[in-house]
Each structure stands twice: as C-alpha cells, then as structure tokens.
C-alpha cells in the first residue's frame, strides 16, 4: 500500500483495506442491531453528589472548599456523631460528582459502573473510597446507590523543585460500584410496534432496513410489517401471533446493506484527514508551494583599541534567508477513493498541505462531498 505511506497522518476509515486491495461493496453490509437501536430501550443518565474519603493528603482544602466541610458534617450527623464547635483541617476527603448510565431494562440488584470527578481543589483521588451516594435521574427519583474504591489511572509525583503528572488524577471510576435500586418504568411487552432508530440517519439505509424486515416477515408471517417513517425511524408493527421479544431477536440479526453520504472530515489540530469511500473529485489542477523565511541573529562583541577609553560593545548582525519550495502542477481527479489518494500523493505534500488542498478543491466546487472541519 504505497499510497498510505507517503500521506502521513491521512486516515482512511470508510474504505476497508485487505490483502493489498479494497473489499467488495458488500463489505458495507451490517446487522440491524449494529446500525439501529430500539427506541424503547434507550439509556438513561444518573447523577449524584458524594464524598471520597481516605486520601493521602491530596483532598480538598476545607477553607477553599466550604461545601466539602458542610457535607462532611452532614454525613457525620447522619451517623450520630456531633460536630458542633469543632474544626477540621484534614485533607483526606474530597467532594465529587458521581455519574452513571442506566442501561435499558436494568433490573433491581444488578450493578453498573460509575464515574467520579472532583468538585473542589483536590489534587488526586488516588487511593480514595467513595462513600454511599444516591444517584438520581432526570425525574428526581433515586435509581441506584454507589459506593466503593475509586480507581484512578493517572498519577502525580511531587518533590521540592519539580512535579510530574501523567494522566488525570482528579477523576476515576468505580467498576460495578452502583447497585440499581429502582426499575425504570417499561411497557415493552404492551407495545403494539417496535421503533428502530438509525444511529446514522440515512433515507437509503432506512428503506433497505424496512425492505429486509418485510422480506423476512413475508416468509414468516405472510405479509409486510415494516415501514420507513423518515431517514432515522423504521416502524415495525407487531403481528398478532408474534411475541415482541422473539420478534426483536429475529429482526436485529437481519443483514442490511448500509449507505453513507460522502464526507471529508479534517482535524486541523492533529493533522488527521478522514475521507469517505464515496468521495469524488472533479478534474482539477493543483499546485502547492511553501515559503520559508529563516532569521538568524549572530551578535558580535566589539572590543576597544588598547589604551583607549572606549568600552566593550555588542554589534548586532542579522542574516535573513528566504527559501521557496514549489511543487509541480498535478491533475487530481478522483472517481474512486484509490484514485483520489494516489492523486494527492503525486503532489508530494505533508498532511497540513493536503488539508489546505482539500479546502481549496472544495472552494473551487470540485469536491463532490461535504467538508467537515473539527
């Protein structure tokens, strides 16, 4: 794959490369469960406020974070310990926000992971333990309770004159740290239809999904049951003799040929370029050149003559050199992804130059795709 070596950070995602060539078109086929989700089976976000204790002097400063001290006093009072008239300067606890995602159809007693993030001026949550924290949903109801040891991937090493930090030390995870206490209200079994939502909205994919379901239903139930409502939703009516759970299990494994719009995604910060498989470029001539200016300062020390009353002086000396590198004019025409990448490589520029070229081609109206800048 020579055209991949010279392009540097150019990333090709939409087209799959295998054994020196591209896979055929049917490689874009995918199961319905991989390209769509059930509307009745969506996730729900949970949030809570808690305390992490057991830190080794890396917690909140109680004077700088008064809410941490208030939370500590409230917790101790709930445990029957009076804290009136006492002050604490301990830095072994930190106030944190706890977040989690409640999966669909989760039952009471099952466990989920939680994320813990510092709220105050704590420098690290490493070695801490999250005390019992209730997690609420958007409706204000408590759905889970979290507690456990916080796992932090980052670390900090500090001395008198230097500090070394790697990763994030003020956030961590508690694997399986929350127990679900309340079941989400669900009427899945009572539904009369299934609503499938495409993760990437596309009319062609939605119609193909409905056709695949109707082909299966015609053989199994004797008639069509699916209809594409728009580019994102496909409605599947429940047959009278079908069980909804079994029907969903059968439908989600059907294979559909997916379709995606032509896009070019550019991240100028990292120099990453992602070109979709359907991107095409009309015939256009491209030339790329760069101007480099180098300024060198070499000050000279000038000494006075012997027995004179002069003083040592510094005489500035500046050398300016300009270099202009111009590439050949290349004809770029991309009826497919392979030809487009080969044409860009013929110009012989780095990824930042390719970004500028793609933007210019788009401005010229020759890029038959959507250009997304990140």
TrEMBL record:
<comment type="similarity">
    <text>Belongs to the FlgI family.</text>
</comment>
<dbReference type="InterPro" id="IPR001782">
    <property type="entry name" value="Flag_FlgI"/>
</dbReference>
<dbReference type="GO" id="GO:0030288">
    <property type="term" value="C:outer membrane-bounded periplasmic space"/>
</dbReference>
<protein>
    <recommendedName>
        <fullName>Flagellar P-ring protein</fullName>
    </recommendedName>
</protein>
<dbReference type="GO" id="GO:0009428">
    <property type="term" value="C:bacterial-type flagellum basal body, distal rod, P ring"/>
</dbReference>
<dbReference type="GO" id="GO:0005198">
    <property type="term" value="F:structural molecule activity"/>
</dbReference>
<comment type="subunit">
    <text>The basal body constitutes a major portion of the flagellar organelle and consists of four rings (L,P,S, and M) mounted on a central rod.</text>
</comment>
<dbReference type="GO" id="GO:0071973">
    <property type="term" value="P:bacterial-type flagellum-dependent cell motility"/>
</dbReference>
<keyword id="KW-0969">Cilium</keyword>
<keyword id="KW-0975">Bacterial flagellum</keyword>
<keyword id="KW-0574">Periplasm</keyword>
<keyword id="KW-0282">Flagellum</keyword>
<keyword id="KW-0966">Cell projection</keyword>
<comment type="function">
    <text>Assembles around the rod to form the L-ring and probably protects the motor/basal body from shearing forces during rotation.</text>
</comment>
<keyword id="KW-0732">Signal</keyword>
<dbReference type="Pfam" id="PF02119">
    <property type="entry name" value="FlgI"/>
</dbReference>
């Amino acid at each position: 794959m020579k055209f991949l070596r010279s392009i540097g950070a150019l990333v090709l995602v939409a087209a799959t490369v295998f054994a020196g060539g591209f896979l055929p078109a049917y490689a874009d086929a995918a199961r319905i469960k991989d390209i769509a989700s059930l509307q009745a089976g969506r996730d729900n976000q949970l949030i809570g406020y808690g305390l992490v204790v057991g830190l080794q002097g890396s917690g909140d400063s109680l004077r700088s974070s008064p809410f941490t001290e208030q939370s500590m006093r409230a917790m101790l009072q709930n445990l029957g310990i009076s804290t009136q008239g006492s002050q604490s300067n301990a830095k072994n606890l930190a106030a944190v926000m706890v977040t989690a995602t409640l999966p669909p159809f989760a039952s009471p007693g099952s466990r989920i992971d939680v994320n813990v993030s510092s709220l105050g001026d704590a420098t690290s949550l490493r070695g801490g333990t999250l005390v019992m924290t209730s997690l609420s949903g958007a409706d204000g109801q408590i759905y889970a309770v979290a507690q456990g040891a916080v796992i932090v991937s980052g670390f900090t090493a500090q001395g008198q004159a230097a500090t070394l930090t790697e990763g994030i030390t003020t956030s961590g995870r508690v694997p399986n740290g929350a127990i679900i206490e309340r079941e989400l209200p669900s009427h899945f079994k009572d539904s009369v239809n299934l609503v499938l939502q495409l993760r990437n909205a596309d009319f062609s994919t939605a119609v193909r999904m409905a056709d695949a379901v109707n082909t299966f239903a015609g053989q199994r139930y004797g008639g069509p049951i699916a209809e594409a409502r728009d580019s994102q939703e496909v409605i599947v009516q429940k047959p009278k003799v079908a069980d909804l759970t079994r029907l969903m299990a059968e439908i989600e494994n059907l294979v559909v040929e997916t379709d995606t719009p032509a896009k070019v995604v550019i991240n100028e910060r990292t120099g990453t370029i992602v070109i979709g498989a359907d991107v095409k470029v009309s015939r256009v001539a491209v030339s790329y050149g760069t101007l480099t200016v180098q300024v060198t300062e070499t000050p000279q020390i000038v000494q006075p003559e012997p027995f004179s009353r002069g003083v040592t002086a510094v005489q500035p000396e500046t050398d300016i050199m300009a270099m202009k590198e111009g590439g050949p004019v290349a004809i770029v025409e991309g009826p497919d992804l392979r030809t487009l990448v080969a044409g860009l490589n013929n110009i012989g520029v780095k990824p930042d130059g390719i970004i500028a070229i793609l933007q210019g081609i788009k401005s010229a109206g020759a890029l038959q795709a959507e250009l997304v800048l990140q």
